[in-house]
Specification:
The chain is about 40% helix and about 20% strand. By secondary structure, it is α/β, with parallel strands linked by helices. Strands 16, 17, 18, 19, 20, 21, 22 and 23 form an 8-stranded antiparallel β-sheet that branches. A hairpin with an 8-residue loop joins strand 4 and strand 5. The longest helix is centred in the middle third of the chain and has 19 residues. It is globular.
């Protein structure tokens, strides 16, 4: 604790450029637990960059940890690029604009050209800018859907997707050599703008982004004379202007925006957990819908790279899962393109290993290949790039994550809530003209392909002990693999950390041709499964459960049994 106290004293002496930090450091004086939590470690820079609670200390998001990471990135870029440049974007979170400008000042001081958006924009627009401006890297300041106390710092590969393991590891090595106070170069923002070391991203690039999004339309007549009624909430984030702009381009006029969630507000006063995966994020929209009915409720997360929906079902609204939306988009895009003769040769749909196998079943129907990749949209972006390098970019139809992230088209290399909102809305209009709601469409898909019930369990482990607890859980699973879960035999164990899949009956081992990741997958009888992985961005263990059955009652029972057994196995 003595070393931590010395570190605390150093911050009290040198962290003088932010009044909030000065006040916080003073407020925890003499409180060893509070000091320890802020200084027991440094925020780790991984493939998701930095993410943490906003505040004072090495284990917090503040201008000093942001500047240290940026200096390390600058050192890495100068070593690997002749004339490096970086694009920067930020969302509505607390201090996002401050962190973005601070990072720009560090890069400019290091002689690195910076292109920064004039105002907050969705994360996919950063991905687009990196590629369009041929930048060496990109930075977006966001903590996605985390609660208001969090912020983050994501870094991008020059090809437009988030840094992969190799790039993040190399950058982290440079960051570790940067003294947080003494080694960081900084210059004044306004002077850097005057000297053109920092340039604002111009409107032509923004328009080009929307042109590329609109090119992904499938049924261009769907929204013509449509009476589709939409309620949209940007959840106080970046989606307000972009989503409304693209829906206006489609000719949809009956779009109402939730007033208390319309404008940027990093405190998220009406949605403490601004996550479109949960019903609570839709509460304000549902109140509006009770007063004046709508066909579709749309919600984008604060950095607008993910979108969730609720659809009219009788007198209520059915909140659709990310897997269900992915399934409907797969069916809609493939069926419409096939009908119009625009489906490419050897089409491919891309999903993550934790995304529903229902996607594969639908893709098979249209003779479309399904690619399974690790969790993280960067891997989907990387696959798109590989297809492009082989001259096969047109094969890519759609990419998705179960966590409500989708991308159609190759203009960006990250999930895009703008194009997803456009396609979901177009899809709803398309089916409404056929007398169907999206709830009807999903029911038809289940009737044709069977029930795939996918459930995600999250277990949080905060503080210094949390990371150690999660590590012990994963070690225990590897040392004592379960032979059965919920009475279902484990048929295959796939360990993505060792890249080995083992058939339990025969003991036959096979290689998993994916990057190594701390994930354990248990394939069970009857097409059921359980996948366990620690989150890469939050102090959580995640368990992905798939129950495959003939009806929802049976699937619910299987899900309940697997949940209970996995909690026992993990000691939760």
């Amino acid at each position: 604790m003595s070393d931590i106290n010395k570190l605390y004293d150093l911050w009290c002496e040198k962290a003088t450029n932010d009044a909030d930090l000065i006040n916080e450091l003073e407020s925890i004086k003499g409180n060893e637990n509070e000091i320890n939590d802020r200084f027991y470690r440094s925020l780790e820079f991984g493939t998701g960059g930095l993410r943490g609670v906003i505040g004072a200390g090495t284990n917090r998001m503040n201008i000093y940890t942001v500047n240290q990471a940026t200096q390390g990135l600058a050192d890495y870029l100068k070593e690997n690029f002749e004339k490096p440049s970086v694009a920067i974007a930020y969302d509505s979170r607390i201090k996002s604009d401050l962190f973005a400008k601070s990072a720009a000042c560090v890069l400019a001081a290091n002689g690195i050209k910076v292109y920064i958006y004039k105002e907050l924009v969705p994360t996919p627009m950063l991905s687009f800018a990196v590629r369009r401006l041929e930048c060496s890297s990109g930075i977006v300041i966001t903590a996605s859907h985390n609660p208001a106390k969090y912020n983050g710092f994501k870094c991008y590969d020059p090809r437009g997707f988030q840094m992969t393991d190799e790039g993040a590891k190399a950058t982290y090595e440079y960051i570790q050599n940067v003294d947080i106070f003494d080694d960081v170069k900084v210059m004044d923002f306004d002077i850097a703008v005057e000297n053109k070391r920092i340039e604002y991203i111009e409107d032509w690039l923004i328009k080009e982004f929307f042109d590329c999004v609109e090119e992904q339309r499938v049924d261009k007549e769907a929204c013509v004379d449509s009476d589709l009624k939409i309620i949209y909430t940007p959840l106080n984030g970046t989606g307000n202007k972009p989503v409304r702009r693209i829906l206006k381009r489609l000719g949809l006029t009956n779009v109402r925006v939730v007033p208390e969630q319309e404008y940027p507000d990093g405190n998220f006063p009406t949605a403490p957990y601004p996550n479109p995966e949960i019903r609570q994020a839709f509460e304000c929209a549902l109140k509006m819908a009770a007063e004046e009915s709508a066909d579709l409720l749309l919600a984008t997360d604060p950095d607008c790279d993910r979108v969730g929906i609720a659809v009219k079902k009788g007198n209520d609204y059915r909140l659709m899962t990310g897997n269900e939306v992915g399934a409907m988009l797969t069916e809609y895009i493939l069926s419409t393109k096939k009908k119009e003769g625009t489906l490419p040769k050897k089409p491919i749909v891309v999903k993550t290993i934790v995304t529903s196998e229902l996607i594969r079943s639908i893709a098979d129907k249209y003779h479309t290949e399904t690619a399974d990749l690790l969790t993280g949209f960067k891997y989907i972006g990387e696959l798109i790039t590989q297809l492009e390098e082989k001259g096969e970019a047109e094969r890519y139809v759609l990419g998705m994550e179960e966590s409500y992230g989708y991308l159609a088209g190759t203009y960006a290399r990250d999930k895009d809530g703008v194009v997803a909102a456009m396609l979901i809305t177009e899809m709803a209009a398309h089916y409404k003209k056929m007398g169907k709601t999206l709830a009807d469409v999903m029911d038809e898909i289940y009737a044709e392909h069977g029930i795939y019930l996918n459930t995600l369990l999250n277990f949080a482990f905060e503080g210094a002990e949390g990371m150690a607890t999660m590590s012990k859980m994963m070690d225990s699973l590897r040392q004592n693999p379960p032979a059965s879960i919920a009475g279902l035999n484990v048929e295959k164990v796939s360990d993505y950390k060792t890249s080995i899949a083992t058939e339990t009956k025969t003991g036959i081992k096979s290689h998993i041709d994916l990057p190594k990741s701390n994930v354990l997958s248990y394939s069970l009888e009857d097409g059921c499964s359980a996948i366990v992985r620690p989150s890469g961005t939050e102090p959580k263990i995640k368990i992905y459960i798939t129950a495959h059955a003939d009806n929802f009652d049976a699937a619910d029972k299987i899900t309940e049994d697997i949940t209970d057994d996995m909690k026992k196995i993990l000691g939760i």
